Amino acid sequence: MNEYDSNRIKDLIKKINYTPTESLDEANCYILNTCHIREKATEKVYHDIGRLKKKFRNKIKPIVIVAGCVAQAEGDILLKKEKYIDAVIGPQSYHQINDLILSAEKNSKHLNFTEFDVVEKFDSLNFFKNSNNKISSFLTIQEGCDKFCKFCVVPYTRGAEFSRSIKELIVEANQLVENGAKEITLLGQNVNAYNFKKKRISDLIYEISKIKKLLRIRYTTSHPLDFTEDLVEAHKNFTKLMPLIHLPVQSGSNKILNAMNRKHTIEEYLETIKKLIKAKPNIKFSSDFIIGYPGETQDDFEQTLKLIKKIEFINSYSYIYSARPGTPASFLQAIKLDEAKKRLKLFQNNADKIKLKYKKTLINKISKVLIENKVKNENKYFGRDEYFNSVIVKSDNNIVGQIKDVQILQINTNTMFGEISSNINQKDYAA
Ligand code: SAM
Ligand code: SF4
Predict the structure, then answer these.
(1) Rounded mean pLDDT of the chain?
(2) What domains sit in the chain, N to C, each tagged with a CATH number?
(3) SS3 content of the chain, % helix, strand, coil (to 5)
(4) Ligand showing the shortest atom-to-Cα distance for residue 148
(5) Distance of CA 154 from the midpoint of ligand 2 (Å)
(6) Per-residue pLDDT for 424 more than 60?
(7) For ligand 2, which residues put their CB under 6 angstroms from it?
(8) What average pLDDT does this structure show over 120-127?
């Protein structure tokens, strides 16, 4: 979502004649768009500003703005502690970034724009064409969260759930496709909680799939509790909807899920998975895990290991629990860091084995790869298959934006390598 926000900021600043630059030495304004989901985000801000200070030691000081969720959560502290920062702006206020830059130009100092004005934000953004021109583009459809998991800062930094209107989303989706997008990923902290005047994400997928030149639709991140029947059905009905679902479960233990306030059980989670497989047999899953949540015993952890072996997630994103200031879990007794690290390592070894085993099944099969870009200085192209696996292929022709049948020849944990398949009669597709 920060990538989407940064792109919108790039569109906004053009109005006051600022343009994005690749050269860090040339910039006269820096906007650090930050994430606060796990620790170290604030330290990273101080570290980046330290580097800027060095770079500009004998030059005119650039304007420095901290945007995003660190600004929202720690704005005043940042301004007090680091005088080099001119302003902070929260994720629901960035439509006002031009006012902030213009005030900072006039030497106004220590400005704090951290209002929650999400309606006004999207109303303002609708006046600016989304100029993102990536083959695979993001589209924020929903923001914020009302679920209040005990470990999470999102309800405090992004605010309450808000869904954008279907009409404005169709306009923006069309803009992205006109700019060259072939794939759109619908974004939200709880994307499947989307609800605009009773219209659900499945209704939006139906509308967006009508855009002829759009080839693929994805969405992230879903919450198990909001996985309603209509969305399950959508996977059956819409071929443009990709057969990979990112469905964070966090833990395999009902005790821990309850302590986290996740509001569902493992049995309910498995039921959703079962329904989805029934609706679309080639569907696969990825998930997020928090390891070492306060109160997690060896037995709870082993239940998490059992779960990943059962579902065979093709990608598992795992993190050690990180206490976030102000969240209810931050007042709980943490488990020993050494123990959490040991569990994380074991978890990741298991998750990698599962991933590798799955990827080996793809060797010599044909994957449908949407080519996103050319690899710099080589006759190679980067793309992703339907399951979001990265694939590299050789080609002498420009194939960006096309879906190619690629025979997978080699794999490693992160990337697959293949060649464009021309033998139409003998295609053994990966499923
Ligand atoms: N809304 C989605 C859900 O509830 O499934 C997840 C969105 S959350 C922004 C992204 C991921 O960050 C979570 O799935 C969780 O694994 C991780 N996360 C959030 N807070 C965390 C914390 N305090 N410590 C470690 N990981 C955390
Ligand atoms: Fe955070 Fe997701 Fe829980 Fe909302 S549902 S509080 S975004 S982890």
Answers:
(1) 93
(2) 2-117 (3.40.50.12160), 120-360 (3.80.30.20), 366-428 (2.40.50.140)
(3) 40, 20, 40
(4) 2
(5) 6
(6) no
(7) 145, 147-149, 152, 154-155, 189-190, 223
(8) 86
